[in-house]
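Standup notes, structure subgroup. Blocker cleared on the 2-acetamido-2-deoxy-beta-D-glucopyranose input:
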Amino acid sequence: MKTSSKPFHNYGKSKTCPNLLIKGLPYVFTSLFLASILSFFFFLYSPNSLILVPKQGHDIIENPSQKQEHQHANTSTLPPWKSHKEEKTCDLFKGHWIRSIRDSSYYTNSSCTTIPDSKNCFKHGRMDNDFLNWKWKPDQCDLPMFDPRIFLQMVRGKKLAFIGDSVARNHMDSLLCLLSQEETPQDIYKDSEDRYRKFYFPKYDFNLIMVWSRFLVQGEERMVNGTGTGIFDLQLDKADEDWANVLHELDYAIISAAHWFFRLIYLHEGGKLVGCIYCNEPNVKNYDVDMALSLVFKTSLKHINNCKECEKGKLLTILRTFAPAHFENGVWNTGGHCNRTSPKNEGDVDFGAFEWKLRNVQMEEFENAKSEGKTRFKVVDVTRAMMMRPDGHPGEHWGNKWMKGYNDCTHWCLPGAIDVWNELLLATLQREG
Ligand SMILES: *[C@@H]1O[C@H](CO)[C@@H](O)[C@H](O)[C@H]1NC(C)=O
Ligand SMILES: *[C@@H]1O[C@H](CO)[C@@H](O)[C@H](O)[C@H]1NC(C)=O
Ligand SMILES: *[C@@H]1O[C@H](CO)[C@@H](O)[C@H](O)[C@H]1NC(C)=O
Ligand SMILES: *[C@@H]1O[C@H](CO)[C@@H](O)[C@H](O)[C@H]1NC(C)=O
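Run returned:
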């Protein structure tokens, strides 16, 4: 845990920001509006701790000249994984970005009507589009193009839920766009805060659900006079009922978490305070974010392994690993930006960084849970690929009309680099058979 203390130094600086933010906003806004803006920025400022050291000069991107031509022109018509045996076992998550031979976005902001406004980067003035022209190339095999028909046939009659925060939602929104090119989904449920969503694809009898769970375990925000304080209490040993109670209905659960842990949080076990993140109180044990995160994943995966109501063999759980933010030259509220227009080289990515450590604790808990052999677990390990994609974020192009000057370097533009998560998801589901 020693090496991880450094990234936290930013927190002291950022801790006061929510107040500055309130003072800086025009008086007329309702507290509800404030709350939603704040929760967005509480979320956004989390990656303060995760800033990569800015690299000087241009990134030299590997640009294979001949090899790239063989890719995907006809891949989606081939029976995936049938042609090459090694493709069943190759590591999909270790590779590099290569230029694709065509405009590789699967959809546009007119062919997909469900892109959330804040991810519709082109609508909000993003001028460069070269970030769409990259394809993830695993070192030992090819990653097939996303074929919505193959995906929908695989999940026919099934129920799939994304369980997590707004980055999980970003993943789901990418999948919605990809699938909508084959069938327009029905929007069947939306809560008042647009956090729980349900979509239905009638032709394939497929249910796609977003279950909002920022921490995966039970977590409550401390309120003062009806206003959120941004301080949370987590029950490290209790899975969040919002997803735990629907688990038995699901065929696929895609879980993820991390970005909400970079804040003042009190940690409880068996109803007793056992420590905190960032509280700096003399008699309270300090937990680093990765330590807390590993306990949260332990509890969550254990809950899945021991699910009593779950029909044997029905559920496939997929852990989506940590997706890094890319603020450079500052943090979200000090002018940090992310305006690169092309990927980074693998050699320019720091695998000693805290992002990678978060991914590793998630992988560790995943391996432990899987080795119990009680239910099926798979991983979609996006961290390495996304550490190379500082060009994939909205930056200033997220429709931030109230918050000019603040950049979103946490979420991902649609269409964009995040679409690869669903190529990886499909390939992973296909391997599972
Ligand atoms: C792709 O398939 C089509 C017909 O199925 C064929 O005409 C074309 O030559 C193929 N392209 C490549 C690059 O193999
Ligand atoms: C799509 O993006 C273009 C810019 O590329 C923008 O002019 C247009 O308003 C956007 N359309 C929608 C429906 O968001
Ligand atoms: C909460 O409201 C009460 C009554 O309006 C007030 O006296 C108190 O100072 C408030 N507490 C905080 C922390 O704002
Ligand atoms: C990125 O933004 C920074 C700060 O606004 C600016 O100094 C820099 O020139 C920008 N870079 C590009 C490539 O636009």
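Discussed briefly. Residues 337, 339 surround 2-acetamido-2-deoxy-beta-D-glucopyranose (ligand 4) (CB under 6 Å).
Next: hand off to the docking folks.
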